[in-house]
Design brief:
globular, alpha/beta, homotrimer, 9 strands
Chain lengths: 274, 274, 274
């Protein structure tokens, strides 16, 4: 169903500016190349405005943020907004420290994000807003299950309405929603949580897909979530045939993305409208 | 012999806060996940106190230290001490520059470390203390061999008595000692020195094992050293069956850690009391 | 033809100080080990002078430069010049932002580089000099082809004469030139551009080879370019026999470097004098 999304990525080779963490930055660069995009990593406040200007999308990931890079995130995000480039936020660890929570909220106040992707806990933190305002009501549970799916979908739609961003909540079941439509996606494999960076890599791929499809952010995001989850499944299938462990699994995951195409995606996609 | 150590890791999934270098940080995160722990990397002074508070152990690695992160190491280390979390020091490159040597000594003055792991040269630098005091007498040789083993064991025990930390000196033969007991461990493979990060990864695993076994730091450290060395052997065995090189070896090493268990460990462990 | 170059690397295990970007730093460290060198990564201004002093060569890569590390690059470069250590510049992204372009030019003003390696666009930016001076005339095209090869060779020789550095322009065809001699090298594989870091890794290997061959920088650089390109070919051949993707390709590339030797190199080298 996402033929056009993938076609645009292949045709445009979108350049993605990433201000991201140093833990998974190499994986993000490699999966961007694997998915048909091209990465630029730059985080000095003296160059991020120029760098983001020559790109098609901006990926802001707060995984190892510091005072210096927070400023760069603001500068780059504002410029990307001026240029109407898709801007994707990965609020890694929001809620775990005040610095991260406040940084995420500060970014949301000055930048319009096209997509926000995180686990349910990070997205809830984002939703709670700064200061005393509770903002969108977040479901109390920390995992998306069949039981609370409807509530999480409603939460995601509400947050999208509030922020204007497509909301991607990833976990055992993934939710991708704008204010009016939502997808529930059941691709993926539990082993993805045993390697670092699957979330960061997904966010980078979302930025790449959105960079090539700026007029269809909901579907671009959903396609990236499906593709990444399916790569997790394909990598697991391959791992079963060897006696590899988690590091081999990481290799197979990125390998799978470098071979992803519409036929593979449509053959393995597990998505429903909600 | 380390059944309980591994059981506790599996049961607790200890969260390890790493302030570490950007060269091997991805490998450290992945091997922590592989060994049954969970990593948090954060180095901004504005969040390290909160981050270390929600963890079970702290890993301080000075591999690419800078003025900003040295301050963060002090703040996190002191907080971890207040909370009685195990704190592990990897004095990467201590002795190679004044900044590193002084940073290591400065950290040792304000933080009580649970474990200090390095090669013989780094540990000697740590032992010499700040300023003119020579402190614990270090053996003159730069490799641990059968010939100087007894002297190095005595040195390690002395340094442990002085610092209160378990001392892990790794090389062809590994020594793990507290003030009264020492282990000599002969697991490992020479190829481990042909990939970057085996030392950093080991320190991270030690932090994970200690985080789950705060009351048995000597055995937790020894178990981690044995496990890592055995992974190096298992990875080498597997490499012999393929025509892989050093990058494949790195993959196999982390793979092996993701499959390590008590049965494997007890089947391959090469440890003796000294 | 590069027997002596490789012999010296094997005999000396040159220690290479890298001030490099955090995207590909792990790959650079691993390929340095794979090629028979040894890496030290250190970027704090308080230690780079000491660190570079104990090394045989310095690799300055501006891939994720910032104000702090630019200063360190200057300090280390000047010290390496004083000690007559080979200093290699990788002007990653020069031309993409003023900060990078100015940083590259600033480094060239205060440091004598032994080798400058980049793609044609980066090298042209380097050649244009600071301010209004156009300096060496750069060819207008952005790829080295059979058609413009002669012009690019002349450009490279001219830039070498101006800077005193060996110039390595890498792409589908690689040019390595000093003021009087040039090599055209046709090793390599197109898939190398689908993983991050092949350029950075090559620059690191050049630094390693030059560190062991300070009196033969042109051939050391050409040997490194041939070796890296041949690794790209060997990795691709191996990939064809498995169903691997780009991440496996990266693993095979570094694997190939860990197995490179004179016999392999001479069997696969595609080099001509120009």
């Amino acid at each position: 169903m996402f033929e056009k999304i993938l076609e645009n990525v292949a045709a445009k080779t979108p350049l993605v500016h990433c201000i991201t963490n140093y833990v998974t930055v190499n994986d993000c660069a490699n999966i961007l190349l694997a998915c048909g995009a091209s990465p630029i990593m730059a985080d000095d406040s003296g160059e991020v405005v120029e760098m983001t200007s020559i790109c098609s999308a901006l990926d802001i990931n707060i995984g190892t943020l510091n005072q210096r890079t927070i400023e760069s995130m603001h500068l780059a995000g504002q410029k990307a907004n001026q240029l109407s480039h898709p801007v994707v936020l990965d609020p890694v660890g929001a809620g775990a420290s005040s610095l991260r929570t406040n940084a995420a909220h500060g970014l949301l106040e000055t930048i319009h994000f096209s997509v926000i992707r995180g686990n349910i806990s990070e997205i809830k933190t984002v939703a709670q807003g700064n200061g005393t305002t509770k903002g969108v009501d977040a479901d109390g549970n920390d995992a998306v299950t069949e039981d609370n799916l409807e509530k999480v979908v409603a939460f995601a739609k509400g947050l999208s309405e509030k922020t204007g961003a497509v909301i991607a909540i990833t976990g055992a079941i993934d939710i991708v929603a704008d204010a009016e439509h939502a997808y529930a996606i059941r691709n993926g494999n539990a082993l993805m949580s045993k390697i670092t960076g699957t979330g960061c890599m997904l966010t980078a791929v979302i930025a790449g897909y959105c960079g090539a499809n700026p007029d269809n952010l909901l579907d671009a995001t959903a396609a990236a979530v499906c593709a990444m989850g399916l790569c997790g499944e394909l990598a697991f299938d391959k791992l079963q045939k060897t006696d590899g462990g988690t590091s081999t699994y990481r290799t197979y995951l990125i390998d799978a993305m470098s071979k992803m195409n519409t036929e593979l995606l449509n053959g393995g996609i597990k998505i429903e409208n909600r």
